[in-house]
Design a protein that fits this description.
With 150 residues, the protein is mainly α. It has one domain. The chain contains nine helices and no strands.
């Protein structure tokens, strides 16, 4: 039920529809429990998609757990994590191919625009530490090439 409500919050917010009545239904929600649920989804998702695609989802997760987000922002972040990390979609990638990625990217971009002020250097550090733990240290070849040219 909560997942349905947060997904509706996301869709209505993207469409510019009033969401106050939906957000009101989320007062008193155990966000700590939902963040654990989100973590479990991220673990499965990350193994399928790799480091680069996992990065924004982890940023959302850490914003939800490490920042002082409003109920609406938590709902948007949780909805984005669920929408991106769960295979069921409005435009499934398995059916629509790359077009199926557009709705995920659009949802992520919309939510990021709403919570980017909460993506602190600490959240970036936690994100990169988690990615390093899961995938090993990232080698940024473009930067290394630039350093070697100097």
């Amino acid at each position: 039920m909560i997942t349905t409500i947060v997904l509706l919050v996301l869709v209505f917010a993207i469409l510019g529809r009033p969401i106050g009545w939906l957000v009101k239904k989320l007062e008193g929600v155990d966000w700590k429990k939902l963040s654990q649920d989100a973590w479990d989804k991220i673990l499965v998702y990350s193994k399928k998609v790799g480091r680069t695609s996992t990065r924004p989802v982890l940023r959302f997760y850490y914003a939800m757990t490490e920042s002082d987000l409003s109920t609406m922002e938590k709902a948007l972040v949780y909805a984005a994590i669920v929408y991106i990390a769960v295979p069921r979609d409005f435009l499934p990638k398995s059916v629509f191919g790359w077009i199926g990625l557009i709705d995920d990217a659009g949802a992520a971009a919309f939510v990021y625009s709403k919570v980017r002020k909460n993506i602190t250097p600490e959240i970036e550090r936690l994100t990169e530490e988690t990615l390093d733990k899961w995938f090993g240290h990232e080698i940024v070849t473009g930067y290394l090439v630039e350093l070697n040219e100097k």
